Amino acid sequence: MREDEEMWTRVRPVSGVTGSVGAGGMLELRRGATGERWSCGASAAAMWIALQQHGWRLDATAIGLSRAWGMDPLLVRVALGRWVEELLEQGVVEDASEPCLRGRPPGSVTGDHIDPGGLPADS
What we know:
The chain is of the alpha+beta class.
């Protein structure tokens, strides 16, 4: 992801995508409508399960995994973000961030006015 791109905070599986963990901890993701399949290793299985447990929120997932793995949460967040970016590109998950977190943050300057982040404008 380029530095200037927005960072999503939450994702969700695309409609029809399911996942299961098989022998050896391998994750298999499937899209029912097309029959497409993706196989991933045990660390991806742990990330998929943790995403579900944390409501598909990336930051909360990274913190939970960092505790379980005894790693720096920032490093886990970077690895999780890269993997989720691959899933986004393949159409397995989609951005589910709150609308106010997409594009411009509240209070950002746009043109000649300040975006109040969804607050009603003064008349």
